[in-house]
Design a protein that fits this description.
Number of helices: 7
Structural class: mainly alpha
Shape: globular
Helix content: 55-70%
Radius of gyration: 17 Å
């Protein structure tokens, strides 16, 4: 088993950042630790949101079947925009987020039942947005929000990795702020 907390020396030329240690962020199996779970809820939500935006090209670049295009193709991107507005305005648009949640239900069930077959990275990108939405809509249940944001982070990282949207050094640089915050918790 690979240890997600293992470190190796890194001097990143691609990112221009010299880091003493490198986190193996691309290992996201359930049995391995998730350092981001020690973040404050708002930081975890912010990280999940940012990574989901980065993973979105895996979804957007996939050519959906014609009958699905009009129903769900723009759903993840529209939802992320609504979540961003919601977070800036503090809950004045919750009804719109509930509508987006309802729009996700059928495709999520179809994915889970195997009726909507998508490449793994495309499915992970789509579900990462769904899980952020679940977390945002769970303000009174912190444990549920943490699990939803954590799931979104894992799914986004998988999509980014498999679709080769970013290389490991770029993801490391992108998430370093959050990793440093997790060490302070």
């Amino acid at each position: 088993m690979i240890d997600n907390n293992s470190f190796e020396p890194l001097a990143s030329k691609n990112t221009g950042i010299n880091l003493k240690m490198k986190r193996n962020i691309f290992i996201t199996q359930e049995s391995e630790s998730s350092w981001w779970k020690s973040l404050q809820l708002n930081d975890m939500r912010e990280m999940a949101f940012m990574l989901s935006q980065k993973a979105l090209p895996a979804w957007n670049n996939f050519d959906l079947y014609e009958e699905l295009k009009k129903d769900i193709k723009s759903l993840p991107e529209k939802t992320l925009k609504e979540i961003e507005i919601f977070l800036q305005m503090e809950s004045s648009l919750e009804h719109k987020l509930n509508q987006h949640f309802l729009s996700f239900v059928t495709p999520v069930i179809q994915i889970q039942d195997g009726h909507l077959k998508l490449p793994f990275e495309v499915k992970q990108s789509f579900l990462s947005v769904f899980h952020i939405l679940k977390g945002v809509l769970s303000p009174k249940n912190e444990a549920a929000a943490i699990e939803a944001f954590s799931s979104s982070i894992k799914r986004s990282i998988d999509a980014i990795k498999i679709a080769k949207i970013m290389n490991p050094d770029e993801v490391l640089a992108l998430t370093n702020k959050y990793y440093q915050l997790s060490l302070q918790a």
